[in-house]
Amino acid sequence: MIKPTHSPYYQAAEDSLVSGVGGSQTPLPYRSIPLWGASVAFVEEFDATLETLQAFCERFEAEVVTDLEDEITLLVVGNQAPTIETSATACSEAELLNLTDWVPPSFPALIDRLIAEGFDITYRSNEGDGFQTTFQWSTESTELSSALLAYARQSEIVQRIMEEAPRRYSARQLAKVSADFTLLDAQEPNHGWYQFLEASKFAWDFDAVSDRIIVSGVSLLKTMQACVGEIAVLAIHDQALENSVDAVHIIGGLDSQGQLMGFILHRVWT
């Protein structure tokens, strides 16, 4: 795994992120919800679909029950839900997904802080290392997708992963490539194929986990969005398939200084 970058550009922001009055460390704004192995029930309506929230819980070995008469340990209370007497831990949808209004001075510094505190940021069902690095890159482009593509084409991480991928294309295979994918290098199919993903859907595909504490991908992308505004997800695959063995996901936005910033995830499926 490539460790997080710590450039001088971020040092002042990182210092303000981790230090409080008198130099003490400011707690991260994430409440530990007892989700691992829990028996979970949902009450009333939520912003996300119930199926999505259930799937999120089941990723952490939690059992979702529908009958409030069953023994439950975690009650997730939706919008305008009535008061319910229960011995279970109660939380809101926002608390379950650790959504806050807090905006860090530097999103890459926040990611570096999570990594330093033992959080593993990884794609769901990843069979590889997951997180690669944060980045900040100077660009003259004011169009986010163009900036992400330009960054990907010069990224040593993307080049290394695509070069090490076992897949090699024949002319017959190239004739069957899906129209959803485009060559990263127009002259070389083995340098990777890309597509842009909808950020709101991609948010459910990864999390940061440390011991039994979860920082959801939904929370991380909403925090990035609060820092830079528009964000985008560029997926680069070794094969022109959504379930390709290797894929590099570059998630980023343009900050107020016109710098492209974000982080990189490596997903491996075999």
Summary keywords:
six-stranded antiparallel beta sheet; four-stranded parallel beta sheet; 13 strands; alpha+beta; disordered N terminus
Describe the secondary-structure layout:
Layout: H1 8-18, E1 39-43, H2 50-58, E2 63-64, E3 74-77, E4 89-92, H3 93-96, H4 107-116, E5 120-123, E6 130-138, H5 144-154, H6 156-164, H7 171-174, E7 182-183, E8 193-197, H8 199-202, E9 206-210, E10 213-216, H9 217-228, E11 232-237, E12 246-254, E13 259-268
Parallel strand pairs: 1-2, 1-3, 3-4
Antiparallel strand pairs: 5-9, 6-13, 7-8, 8-11, 9-10, 11-12, 12-13
Helix pairs in contact: 1-4
Structural features, described:
This protein has 270 residues and is an alpha+beta fold. It folds into three domains: 32-77, no CATH class; 103-138 and 204-269, no CATH class; 155-203. Helix content is 27%, strand content 26%. It contains nine helices and 13 strands. The chain has helices at residues 8-18, 50-58, 93-96, 107-116, 144-154, 156-164, 171-174, 199-202, 217-228; strands at 39-43, 63-64, 74-77, 89-92, 120-123, 130-138, 182-183, 193-197, 206-210, 213-216, 232-237, 246-254, 259-268. It has a six-stranded antiparallel β-sheet with strand order 6-13-12-11-8-7, with helices on both faces. A four-stranded parallel β-sheet has the order 2-1-3-4. A three-stranded antiparallel β-sheet has the order 5-9-10. Strand 12 and strand 13 (259-268) form a beta hairpin. The longest helix has 12 residues, at 217-228. It starts with 7 loop residues before the first helix and ends with a strand. Residues 1-14 and 19-23 have low confidence and may be disordered.
